[in-house]
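We close this part of the discussion by returning to an individual protein. In the encoding step, the backbone of a single protein was reduced to a row of integers, each denoting a local shape. The sequence in question and its structure tokens are set out directly beneath this paragraph.
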Amino acid sequence: MMRGTMLVALFLAAPAAAMAAPTPAKPAPAAAAAAAGGLSPEGRAIAARVLSPDPRLKEIQAEIMTIRQQKAQIIAGTTVDVETLEPLLRREEALMSELRTRQNDRLLALLRALPDADRIAVLHRAAYPPRLDGAKGATPATPDR
């Protein structure tokens, strides 16, 4: 498939997938580790303080969902107005970047505030999140022999 055609196909499929599974503002991996008891009592207290709710994350989420709905409407038409689509794509890109930056800043602030043992627990939980099927945490892929 030609590269341009592949990009169009991916672009057309993305809004449907995004609408079916919106991208919520995920708690930082540290928050998940704290909730799962991976931190010391001191670490949990620090995490609760550092990871206080961020109202801007909810604003970003809401705007991203609105943009995705608008994109889906534009794409659903018989013709696509690229001039209308472009600013939506640019705004979504900026919002996604802001979301990632805010989440990374919160994680880094937490890591700076935690003692070393809790830092390791947070980073380990981020690298190997627990599996929902009851199995032990995910492990790095090993080649089959």
Q: What stands out?
A: The mean pLDDT is 77.
